[in-house]
Structures are given as C-alpha cells and as structure tokens.
Design brief:
The complex is a heterodimer. Chain A is α/β, with parallel strands linked by helices. In chain A, 37% of the residues lie in helices and 27% in strands. The chains are: A alpha/beta, B mainly alpha. At the A-B interface, α2, α3 and α6 of A face α13 and α14 of B.
C-alpha cells in the first residue's frame, strides 16, 4: 500500500539553486525506500520536505503535493508539530540532546505533556530495544547521553524518534560517521523496524542502498532518474545513467 | 614537440619565514605588556593618592577642653554631652538630639560628634604614599617647622568607616555610603529594565523575526545604538524619564510625595536611562550567544516534535545563557562606571542622606569621584582615589557574582 504519494514536487532555494524538479513518487508502507545518488541530487531536500524541516531553511518556492495518508503535508494549514510526531527523523550526525540517556528518550513525550512515569519508562525501554541499544545501556540510563560512543548515539537518536511511535522514519545518512560494526547494527535494526514502520533512508553509499533497500530511487541533480524495486534496480537498471552510477563509472 | 620544463625544486625560505613569525610574536607580546603596564600605572597612581601622611590642626585646641585635669578623649559620655550642649548653639544641639536621642548614642558616637563639631580638625597638608614612605623624616621636619600646632598621622583614606559614612563636606569624616547605595539602586533598575528587554528582543530577532527589510533596519539600528555617546542617552533620559514621565519617576503616581525629589531626578530615572544605554549591548551579545547554539540541536528538538517556544526555552536559552550572562556582565560594568548621562539626568552632587526608595534623590560613585577630583584641595583628591578603589571593588564583586551565576548555569554535558 502506498503510504506517501508525491505529486510533481519542485523546490527552489533562495540562492537560486533548483533542488527538486517535478518529482513523482509513491512510497510503500512497511518497506525501506532508499533515496540515493551523488551529492546535490536533492535526496536530503526531499527527506526534509516530508516532515517540513525545510521550513527552517531558505526555501524560495515549493510546488506540488506530498500526500501522507491522503493529506497534503505541504498545506500551510498542516499542523507541523503533529506531522513531526508522525514522521520521525534521524540526522547524519547523531545529535543527542544535552541530557541523560533516559531523558533523551522521554523528552519528546514530555514535550507533548506526558507525565505518567510508567508510560515514559515503557516507551524508553521499548524504543531502546527496537533500536538494538537496550542491552548496552540498560544499566546506565541516567548517564549523560554525550558519553555514549558515536554508534550508540546514533542508535539513541533512532530510539528517540521511535519513542514517539511515529509511522514513518526518515534517516539522512544515519551511518555516515559510524564504523562498520555499528553500521551493521543500525542496518539490522532497520530490517526489524520495517515490519511496523515505513522507512525512508538516504544511504551514505551505493553498497548500503543495495544491501538495505526494498525500493530504491536514484536522484541526479534534482531529478528522479529511476525508481523501482531495489533488487531489480541494482542488478538490472533501465536507465543508462543509473547503470553508470551503480557500477561506479561516476559519482 | 613541446619542451617540458623540469622543476628544479624550490626554496623553502625557512629562515625568513621563521624570522617573520618571531617579529609578529614579539609585537603581540609587546602590546600585551603595554596594556599591563598601563593598568599597573593606573593602580599605582590610585594607591599613591589613597594612602599617606596627613597634617591637621584642630580649630579648637583639645587641651582647652580639659576638665578637672581629664583630657577630652578620656571624658565620660555625660561630660561630652554637656560639653556639646554648652558649646553648640541650642538650635544645632536640638537638631542633633532630634536625629538620634543623645541617650541612645554610644560614647564613641558622642565623642565623634565632639571631634566633628567642636575640635573640628582641619587638614593643612597631605602627602602621597610614595613620599610618605621615602621622605618621612623630611615631612616630619616640615610639619614641626611650618605648622607647630599640627598633628601628623599616617592615614589610609580607604577605611571601613570611609565606606560606611555618609558624604560630608569635611574630608576627614567624609564617606561614600550614599554614593555606593546610589550606585547599587541605580544598577538594580538598570538590570531590571535591560536584562529581560534585551534578552527578549534578542530571542525575537534571532528566532521569530523573518528576514525582511524592516527587521534588517531594526538590526542595523541596534548595532549603531551601541556606539551612540552616552551623553545622548542622558539627554534622552532627561526628556523621557525626568520630564515626560515625571509623575511616574517621582512617585507621585503612587501617591508618594517626597519633598526631596519633587521632580523626576530619581534613582528610578537614572536606572532606566542606564538601562536604555546598555540595552543594545545586551541585545547584541545575547544574539551572538543564541546564534552560537548549534543548528543541529535545534533540528533535533524540532525533530521530536517540540514547538518553537519549547525549543527556545529548553534548548536555545539554557545553551545560550552563559553567553548572555557574559554580555550582561559587560553591560553592568559599563553602566556602573557611567557618569555623563547621570549628570544630565540630574544626579545630586552633594547629598548626605541615603537613597531609600526608587523615588529618592541620588548620587553615584562615579559622580562622587568626578565631584571630588574637581575640587582644588589636595585632600579631596585622596578621597577620590579611595572612592575609585571602592568602585573597583564594587565592580569586581558584581562581576564575580555574575561569573558565579554563569558557571552555575553552564551545562556540564
């Protein structure tokens, strides 16, 4: 089933660069969709459109529609806070909030006004387990989160999004700063998560895209070149440009 | 076929590069040293004036006050009160009695009164600290030769009494309590006005204001206002707080009729004027501090569904607070040393009663220093030097408390 339908989405930044051009895309539920391509292709921009984080940057013009469960995300009437609760996001560099591990997890719920300690604790435990971090931190939940290793911090950020019980998780190069072992853990966690969530991932390499993606979309200079089944796209691309990129001829 | 130039290797020029480095190193070090020398010279100059020998003559010879062979300094309280009563005019005596009943005064206080009102020591000459140390014999000789009746004492002008006594016209008994309290009251209102307004404006400009020509004009103006001469703020304060808002700043609005401040020249006016003066400084520094909070933290907070206000309150402000407080410290230091605007706003130069409410007349330490240094007599310059030391200590302690506050708010992780 399609979770998100993107119709003719175009976006231009204030400095004149055109970041997205007429994107049409259906994103499937309970699957990992990888957006990949060389830098400047518009992958992150698209990702940021999905939870309206672009509102914070210098966007000149945005047109088209993004339908999430049939409702247009880009509508000015959309409640951004509710949207972001539904669409969680993990950034390239892990940004833990300057609090304890536990507080990082419960922060989003507390912001929403949740005060029941049992609810908070359960959310923290459940999300840590989902992010495959529980065993490593269960004895030191009150330690400052900044003391965790980079890989642990990134999984904590993932857990923090999960604690809010989103429907969609956006990941912007979540493993770019991690060692191979941590990367493996994050990827394994994602494979588990896709059973319940819709995951949209900007991988940091073609290899990662090939490893993880159920569906893959190749972006080049703001254009969606090819979009389709992951295994199909990486082994038998239809477009010449996709093939060149995937086989390592450029990029 | 084109000839290919063969690179012969290149000069490393290590010698001249190192020499240049050393020259700049020396220049930077020298500028620091010049600064330190200037500071030390300033301190030495102040200390030189604040201590030293003082030769003073009694206007009335204490020996003539001896009763039954008891010198005046050993007489009992009752004898001293009787002495006051017999020597002073009855009006002056009753006035003193009205201020505080003689019954309630200690012997020390009464003796102090006898010294002030009857013996009335008069300074004939003062020496600075350095000559007092190096040429004390010479000074002694001069005093015995030229002022045979005078007494010579080594005096520290900066004493505990100096800080706690009110201002008087007699250098030997003058103090700075009035001025210190005036400064503190003024700074209180300065902070109350400038801190919330400044931080609020900074938050608005950084977080809420959109990028358009109107907000850019506001921003430019704030930056320029920080450089406007302080006297201009004084004129502004005079027009707004003293004149236009007189009913408010004199307390008439609240039904307070204070004969000593029948117009708006009050602590409140002065504090608000200085508040306007330091407002741009606080805004600019707070903006810098807010801007220095990493964007990623903001994104993370928004990412978990925080509203703008929640992000500002629980992430921007706590992280920016140390920087904001640093800016506030700078602003307070500026305000506490400011003289010109207060002269325009109407600080009193000679008052002996302490400010007791926002609607009191006032003087401040810098005003007091200015007034004392402009007197011709040498002894007032010593008083000024002592007040400068008091001002420095006041400034240091205010800064220290702000630094403590800042360290308390600095996040540990």
């Amino acid at each position: 089933m399609n979770k998100i339908v993107i119709e003719n989405l175009s976006l231009q930044y204030t400095d004149g660069t055109e970041s997205l051009r007429g994107i049409n895309m259906d994103i499937r539920e309970h699957a990992i969709t990888a957006l990949f391509g060389p830098a400047g292709g518009g992958k992150s921009t698209l990702l940021r459109c999905l939870n309206r984080l672009n509102d914070l940057t210098d966007v000149e013009e945005i047109s088209g529609r993004i339908l999430l469960d049939g409702e247009n995300v880009l509508d000015p009437q959309t409640d951004i806070i509710a949207l972001r609760r539904k669409v969680g996001m993990v950034f390239a560099r892990p940004v833990v909030l300057p609090m304890s591990i536990y507080q990082n997890l419960t922060y989003g719920l507390e912001l929403a006004g949740e005060k029941r300690r049992s609810v908070l604790y359960e959310a923290a435990e459940r999300s840590l387990k989902l992010a495959a971090l529980w065993d490593e931190v269960k004895d030191r939940l009150d330690d400052p989160a900044i003391a965790l290793s980079g890989g642990q911090q990134q999984r904590l950020c993932l857990a923090r999004s999960l604690a809010l019980q989103p429907e969609i998780i956006l990941l912007d190069e979540p493993t770019s700063g991690l060692d191979p072992i941590s990367t493996g853990k994050v990827e394994a966690a994602l494979q588990e998560l896709k059973k319940d969530y819709t995951i949209i991932l900007v991988p940091h390499s073609v290899q990662q895209a090939a490893r993880t993606a159920d569906y893959a979309a190749f972006f080049l200079q703001g254009e969606l070149v090819e979009y389709g089944d992951g295994a199909e796209l990486f082994t038998n691309p239809k477009e010449k440009r996709t093939e060149d990129y995937v086989t390592g001829r450029f990029g | 076929m084109k000839e290919i130039a063969i690179v012969q290797g290149f000069e490393n020029n290590l010698d001249s590069r190192n020499r240049k480095g050393i020259i700049w190193h020396v220049l930077f070090q020298a500028s620091t040293i010049v600064g330190i020398i200037a500071l030390i010279a300033l301190m030495l100059n102040v200390i030189d004036s604040a201590f030293g020998y003082v030769a003073y003559e009694a206007r009335m010879d204490p020996d003539s006050l001896t009763v039954d062979g008891i010198p005046v300094e050993d007489q009992s309280k009752d004898q001293l009160v009787a002495l006051l009563q017999s020597t002073l005019s009855s009006g002056a005596y009753n006035k003193l009695d009205n201020e505080t009943l003689f019954v309630d005064r200690s012997r020390e206080e009464v003796f102090q009164l006898v010294v002030e009102r009857i013996i009335r020591p008069k300074i004939v000459q003062v020496w600075k600290f350095w000559p007092s140390l190096t040429r004390s014999d010479e000074i002694r000789a001069t005093v015995t030769r030229e002022y045979p009746k005078a007494e010579l004492d080594f005096v520290s002008w900066l004493t505990y009494d100096f800080v706690t006594r009110p201002q008087t016209s007699e250098p030997l008994t003058a103090g700075v309590r009035t001025a210190v309290l005036g400064s503190l009251w003024t700074i209180l209102f300065t902070i109350l006005l400038a801190f919330p307004l400044g931080v609020g404006a900074a938050i608005y400009l950084e977080e809420y204001a959109s990028e358009n020509w109107f907000n850019r004009i506001i921003q430019t103006n704030i930056n320029n206002l920080a450089g406007v001469p302080s006297i201009v703020y004084g004129i502004l304060g005079l027009a707004i707080f003293v004149r236009a808002l007189e009913r408010f700043t004199s307390g008439k609005m609240f039904g307070i009729v204070n004969l000593t401040s029948e117009n708006g020249r009050t602590v409140l006016s002065a504090g608000l004027t200085l508040g306007l003066l330091v407002l741009p400084i606080i805004i600019i520094n707070a903006q810098e501090a807010i801007r220095a909070v990493p964007r990623s933290l903001r994104n993370a907070s928004f990412g978990v569904g925080a509203t703008k206000w929640q992000t500002v309150w629980s992430h921007m402000l706590p992280n920016a607070l140390p920087g904001i407080l640093t800016g506030t410290i700078l602003a307070i230091s500026r305000a506490i040393g400011e003289t010109a605007p207060l002269v325009v706003v109407g600080a009193s130069t000679a008052i002996s009663f302490d400010p007791s409410s926002p609607f009191s007349k006032f003087t401040t330490l810098p005003i007091q220093i200015y007034q004392w240094t402009s007197r011709p007599q040498e002894e007032f310059r010593s008083l000024a030097a002592a007040s400068i030391l008091v001002l420095l200590v006041l400034l240091l302690s205010l800064n220290a408390s702000a630094v403590l506050l800042r360290n308390r708010f600095s996040r540990r992780f």
